[in-house]
Structures are given as C-alpha cells and as structure tokens.
Amino acid sequence: MAGTTLAMRSLVSPIMRLSSVSRSTLTTTSQALRSKPLRSNGLSIARVARRGYADAAPTPSPAPKPKKRFRALRWAWRLTWLSALGLIGATAYSIYDLRHPEEQYEPDPTKKTLVILGTGWGSVSLLKKLDTENYNVVVVSPRNYFLFTPLLPSCTTGLIEHRSIMEPIRNILRQKKATVKFYEAEATKIDYEKRVVLISDDSEIKGDISHTEVPFDMLVIGVGAENATFGIQGVREHSCFLKEVTDAQNIRKRIMDCVETAMFKDQTPDEVKRLLHMVVVGGGPTGVEFAGELQDFFNDDLKKWIPEIQDNFHVTLVEALPNVLPMFSKQLIDYTESTFKEEEITIRTKTMVKKVTDKYIEAEVTNPDGSKSLETIPYGLLVWATGNAVRPVVRDLMSQLPAQANSRRGLAVNEYLVVNGTENIWAVGDCAITNYAPTAQVAGQEGAFLARLFNTMAKTDTIEKELQTLSNEQSLAKTDEDRNRVFDEIRERQKQLRRTKQIGPFQYSHQGSLAYIGKERAVADISWLSGNIASGGTLTYLFWRSAYLSMCFSSRNRVLVAVDWIKARLFGRDVSRE
Questions:
Q1: Nearest Cα to 339, choosing from 351, 350, 328?
Q2: 534: Cβ–Cβ under 8 A, 6 or more apart, which residues?
Q3: Which domain holds residue 325?
Q4: What phi and psi values does residue 410 have, to the nearest 5 degrees?
Q5: pTM of the model
Q6: What is the pLDDT of residues 203-237, one digit of tens each?
C-alpha cells in the first residue's frame, strides 16, 4: 500500500509541474497580446475586427415586385394548355362513349314503320337526330358505312387511308335509344300502291333468301345519284369515276400502274408521255381538288423516288364551261387558275369531250374567235368527275307518279321535301330536285330538317291521342270539379299542340364553299352576316383542314384522319401498287 502511494506521488508531481509551466506561459502570452497588437499578414486584429463589423450584411430590403410584362402571353399560354387538355379529355370521353353503347330496347310494333333508303349525307343526318323510339326504323343500303366524300380525293394519292373517312353504319345505329334494323341490300323497286320496297342482296355470299320486300308507312329516299356520262361513247368503259371508295382505290392503282408501265424497258418516248399524262374531266370542286392532290403527289413523292418521270408527268384539267369552280367568286377563280399555272397544271376550258377510247379522248374546243375544232388528247389516266344521273330505282318510281312526268334530273319535291304526287314519301340529297345545288352540305341540312319534322309529327300524334283520352274522360266526369280539371288539361295540351305544329318549310342556310387547289393552298367563299368572305392561300388551307376535320362524323374519324396527315408529313405517301 505504501508502495502504491509512493508511485502515485511520483506520477502526479511531473503533471503538476507541467500545469504550472502552462499557466505561466499563457499568462505571459496574454500580457504580450495586451501590450503589443498581433499582426497577421500585415493586418492587426483591431483592423480585422473593424472590417468585419463594416462588412456585416445589412438588413435585406423587400424584393421588388415583378413587372407586369407579358402577362397576356402567360395567360394565353395557360389557356392554350387548358384548351388542349379539355380537347384531349373530350376526345377520350367520346371514344369511350362510342365503344360502350347503352342497352337498346325494341320499339313499339304498333307504331309506324319508317324506311330509309341509303347511308349518304341526307340519310345519316336524319338518323343522327331522329328519335328512333317514336318509329320502327328500317335502313336499307348496299353499303354498310357512311363515307365522308369531301376527303375522297385525298384517298386517291394515299394521303388519307380510305377507312379513315368511313364510319360503320352499325356504330351509328347502335347509339340510338331504340333498335334500328339494317339490311345491306340494293333497293330495286318502290311499289307506291302496295307501300313496299323490293330489296336484293348483291353481296358475293348469298343465303337462301336474297330477294324480299320491306313494307313501309313512311319512306325516305336518300339513294343519291350515279355518274352521268351524257351518252358519250367510251366514258363508262375507259374512265375512272370518283364517287365511292372503290373508285378512289382504282384510281390509286391506276396511277402507279401508269408510272410503272412507263418505266418498262424499251418503252417509246411517245408512249411514255401518253402514260404519264393524267387527264381530269370536270372543273368542279371534286375535279379541282383531285388535280391538286395528284400534282402534290408528283411533286412531293413520285419525282423524288422515280426521277425518270420528272420531264414527262403532266396533269390536265378539262372543263366545258368558260372557267373552273363556277360556284366561287371571280377573284377565287382567277387565284385558282394562277395557282394551277404555278404548279404546271394545264386548264383546258371550253373543251367538250365527244368520244373516249382506251388511249385518247376526242374533244371539241371552242377557240377565242368562236370557231370550233376537234382535237385528240392522249392520256394514261382519265378521271371523270362531272355530272349526276338518276338511279334506276328513282326513275322507276318517277314513272309510277303522274306528278313526276316533267322531272328529268330526279324526284320533284315540295317545300317540306315530300315527293310530289305522294303523301308519305320524302326525298333528300342528289336524288331530289330542289332550288339548291346537289352538295353534301344541302343533303345534310335536308336530313336534319326531316329529323325535326318527324320528331314533331310523333309529338303531335302523342298529344292528339292524349286529347282524345281527355275528351272521353271529360264526358264521363261526374262532378263539376273533375270536369274543370280535365278541361284545364285539355287547354294545356292544345297549347302544346299549337307550339309543336309551328315548324316551317325547309330553308337552306349556305355556310360557304371550300376547295383545295394544291401546293398547300385552298380557296374559301364563306358566308358571313349579309355578305361573303373570299380568301385563298396557305392560311385558308389550314382553315380548310380544320373545317373538314371538325366535320368528320365521329371522334374516331377525326383521330384517324389527323394521324394519316401526320404520317404523310413524316414519311411521305406510299408509292407501292396494291
């Protein structure tokens, strides 16, 4: 124990000595610092302290408010985004609604049978707005789809796929509240006396029954018109028409067939020029738009992938009248002709086709001095885009009605579109003769008018039945109070009946005319207030595209058409031949 204590003392004594030395050293250093300022890099501690005090951060002042510049642009950008999101949402909902139709119910068999012939603009506009629960509706047409014809010229060059502008009629009918029957058949005869329509199945696959008849109480004829050849020899045998999807497909094949045949080994120069000469007969919107689309196809794609045809490919537009697009203003006609001249499209006005062969057409040309001469025009592709003719089923009905004896171009109708000489047959579209041009715009408005008319007629019948019931109830009433109550209801129904019957005759509202003329340009003659707005150029072309896109029947068509335009912009048109 004593040894341990001695050892501890020996360890503590050096530590105590070290501590005393340290205290004396610190004391000396402190006195030195107080007596003599310490310098570091030439600066005294006092100066450093003063600088530190001077460099202390001042109290931050409030940040200035941002200037109100570009506020309108910021709001415009936000509204654009919101509009885009709203458009996407509306499109998504529309597609979902189309893909998930509600359950339908069978209509009352005691109600009238309404038969609609055709699935064109007039018939589909009628079906779209018709309350099908008021009638037993039957649709008969040889094609089970609606075709958006204004964009059909774009299908001929592959800019738009043909199925993008087709809306299945089953999709349209499935969206109605009550079931609508559809028969894919050709109406061959309308027997007005028996009130039946004879139909025939013209498909490649037939069942045991391929001919039958459909009875009707009310009939709407919307079968359109067929291509008019004006009795010119060879037109039907050697020309391509442009009314149906099959026509556009045939033209597309024929274009590439002419190009590839012209490139055949040892082909003569004259034959190459003939094969690559594309002739369009008809200076209306269809002919002008097809000529513009065809020239775009050559400029954008054909001469890029097949440069050998560059010097020989040529488009000619033939028109019997003094100018093209006669329904447009003189200003737009001149603009169209100048644009065609830039595109090197030849316009042959005052040129009437007299004969068509498999390699050339014979045309009568009116010279500037008034004289006429016969000219031969060779061609590789001939597209006939002019004139409408009456279909056989319409011609047969006209022969049954004495009131139609003087009609030549179609069924004469009154201001309510009722066929003259009948009381329960209506006609819309190209098969009806009205005071308006046979266009898709007119047919669409006629169909919408008939839908309002038929809906009104159904409401009228319902109110009249209610009035008859109330009248019987009033006669059986036992007290004055009951009779007065029924009388008040009768007066209310009579007011409703008068309001319902207040529907005027059909009046066409012209919204304007549009036409694509190639080179990403278009012309528009738009009705505005009491006048018209005539415009042409690239901005009009953008308006033309947006207008046609909005006019497509469904969101499905709009999306498909927009995708086709994007594909063509990115990859070009397809130059393969199917």
A1: 328
A2: 328, 329, 331, 332, 523, 524, 525, 526
A3: 240-389+510-571
A4: 160, -165
A5: 0.81
A6: 989 899 999 999 999 999 999 999 999 999 999 99
